[in-house]
Amino acid sequence: MPRLLLLAPLRAQTGNGTTAQRIQDHLESAGHSCTLWDTYGCESPSAVAQLVSSGNFQGAFGIHLYKAGRLLQGIRIPFGIVFGGTDINEDIKCAEKVQVMEKVLDEARFAVSFTDAMKETASVYWPWARNKICVQSQGVVTSPNAFFNWKKFLQNAGIPQDHGSLRFFILICGLRRIKDPFYLVDAFTEWHREDPSVYLIIIGPAVDPVFAEEVKEKIKRVEGVLLLPEIPMEDLHAVVKKCFAVVNSSLSEGMSVAILEAMDLKVPVLARNIPGNAAIIKHKLTGLLYSSPQVSIKSKKSFTSLFAHDTKASLAKHREQRLFGNLCICIYVSPYTIQP
């Protein structure tokens, strides 16, 4: 049975961590032995080389061309690399990191991009690697907790339950600047002032503790916006099902797991119009894309259309076709069958 090492940033309740866990589950269900290892626990390529040697691994995967890739440089086993999102969208802006990623891509047997857009961006910097990069959208499996206590959740969050028609929008993200949660706060505060039934819930771990404190201080001063810590995945899926829509405010994305999970749960999505989101959302067909907070909140016509049962059913139908027609449950590319 082949022994594989999967190296990835594994912060809890984050996209790359969730994707890594799903890849591991898929590889193991296919009969492989797969060890998941956190990039934050590895100090250097030599530490990974020692891990590979002691673990007798025959192949490796890395998620994130820079964070995982730099640690896989020089290892003596074949490896593939999966673009994570910030590597192609943000790290590419740093010349030093570009040099590292180029070397990683040169050594890798293959690379996986979640979207055509990410592949095209990578190909601009490394045109020689175009044929090495395959596009494979990621898919999701949702499992909402059937016994989740919604009323208790609202009570613990301090949300009054005397309204019969509260509308919750949920932003699921690790608190770091690239997710830009401030982008929608003022607009939702204004909307809540006009309509007290509307709330924005921001939920996720404090990935950047300093920035997380800034978010907490901001939200203390506004109404209609709640900041909650991360909760177990099954509970989070149950919360999403109760929400009016899932929102995304990121400055850049690879492929948002939160958006894919919302689609799988048949919950409308409202996302910032960036390449990573536009790659999976067709405006007014599988969700709504916005270019400014004012457009996202004040477009009453768009929101009214979301209320319509027929339109929501149509969105759900197209999302289901999108998920099951174009997405796979998980990524698996054998490091033994693809040659450089």
TrEMBL record:
Domain Glycosyl transferase family residue range list: 172-294
Keyword S-adenosyl-L-methionine: no
The organism's place on the tree of life at top rank: Eukaryota
UniProt keyword list: Glycosyltransferase, Transferase
Record protein name field: Glycosyltransferase 1 domain containing 1
Pfam families: Glycos_transf_1
One GO MF term: glycosyltransferase activity
Signal peptide limits: none
CDD domains: GT4_PimA-like
Glycosyltransferase is among the record's keywords: yes
Organism whose genome encodes this protein: Salvator merianae (Argentine black and white tegu)
